[in-house]
Amino acid sequence: MAIGRVLYEHQLFKEALVSFKRACELQPVDVRPHFRAGNCLYVLGRYKEAKDEFLLALEAAEAGGNQWAYLLPQIYVNLGIALEGEGMVLSACEYYREAAILCPTHFRALKLLGSALFGVGEYRAAVKALEEAIFMKPDYADAHCDLASALHAMGDDDKAIVIFQKAIDLKPGHVDALYNLGGLYMDAGRFPRASEMYTRVLAVWPNHWRAQLNKAVSLLGARETEEAKKALKEALKMTNRVELHDAIAHLKQLQKKKVKGNGGANGEGSFVVVEPTKFKTVGEKTTLRQDLANALEIRAFQRITRLSRCDVELLKKEMNDGEVPVSYSGTGVPQRSIRKPNLEEILRRLLDFLKPETFQGAVKAINERILTVFDDTGSGRVDLGMFFAVLAPICNGPPEKRKRVAFDALLWRPVNEGGGAQIRKADATRYIKLLRAIYVPSHGVKSSFVMFDDADWGFGIMSTLLKLETGDRNRHGNRVCSVCRYPIIGSRFKEIKSHFSLCNQCYSEGKVPPAHKQEEYKFREYGSEAEAMKDKCKCFTLQSHSDP
Ligand SMILES: [Zn+2]
């Protein structure tokens, strides 16, 4: 042990680890060697092993009674940090919370809890934890910085600016606070202040190319064109990333537009938005505008969570293999309900191909979109059968299989056990309600009711989603959208009178080129140019037949 500690202090972590491991063997009931071995593993970037070692320390501490009580909060905190290293932020929150309960003055545990909650999108709870941390340690710069970020995420930018400023007062070289404050000033149109912040970031961290780029943009906003050009050149010296070239192209576009505006053009934008009732469809296969808007949103969610790469069969496997703790809800009806951190472990298995940061992003999206709807009482528990049923339609697999798994998940709920192959009506109703609340939240009750009240039993939106999934790589020669000017990918929506074409996004948003003002617009959807070709030929044959 003593040797290990000396080695650790001299940053010889690999060597220290060997000593601590040996100590673990000699004194298996001692907490400290496990704890220290865990720290070594964490520093070496071996998060999973670190976590296992901390869990052993925890086990030993609980078995050893009071003598280790003083170490428990620290074990919980380090366990949480190791879990965050693996991308398991919901689980990390659990342990930070434990530490804060055991030791209410542990301001670092509260700060870590707040930052982790921020990372999974639970902003209100994050603000509470961070405010408590600051209450205990008023000069805690990092806690101020994260608090300001959470406030910004909740839309309270005025307060966020004050708190970021406080973080900078406490620690003048706080790069994150300076950089984020620069962004807020830019959003507020206070460009000289923004460029000042970026200059200060660069003083601490001269190679921060994003700060350099943003400095250029804010100088441009402040109409210091020459300075802006200089800053851009500096940014180009730092990196050759595509983002930078995209940003420059975008800036040039903006300048061009401005020139055009000054030159006395007709003053209209490059599109007008038409109200939904004026969009009509031609042909049975043409997707309705509202359906497409909904499906595009679901598709975006599928992409952030990477669930489109998760085989739906894996859900089935979880149901068959997993041992889920059954709990009883207030009314006494048994449910297979599960706590959020355990749910995160299941998600980790389903999405085991993701890197920790990407996985954390997926959990954040699922937490914000699905779990908040499920756990509206804030109990921290989720009905697992329902959860699988909601997930299944957006996983990877043939549509019939996705529906089958959703159906099985509803049957899998214990209330249905022994009840044969029938889903209770109450469950079906609740399921459809959840689907609506999660996947089409922004639309009125009436329209979504129609959408889900079809013969397809709640999956009306799925056919449109499938079209998007398969059309991702369809190009249409070098056809571009008449509104956004990007090449059309997926379906092409052609207006049959004026012959302009729209991409998925512009069609779903109801944008049309201003040159074509019409009472109403009729669109036909083409999945590919081959389809469009066939359609043209059909027109010709019809015409020739009708000719006398
Ligand atoms: Zn477009």
Automatic annotation (TrEMBL):
GO terms for cellular component: plasma membrane. Keywords: TPR repeat. The keyword Cell division does not apply. The keyword RNA-binding does not apply. TPR repeats lie at residues 107-140, 141-174, 175-208. Gene3D superfamilies: EF-hand, Tetratricopeptide repeat domain. Pfam families: TPR_16. Coiled coil: none annotated. InterPro entries: TPR-like_helical_dom_sf, TPR_rpt. This is Putative TPR repeat-containing protein. It comes from Prunus yedoensis var. nudiflora.
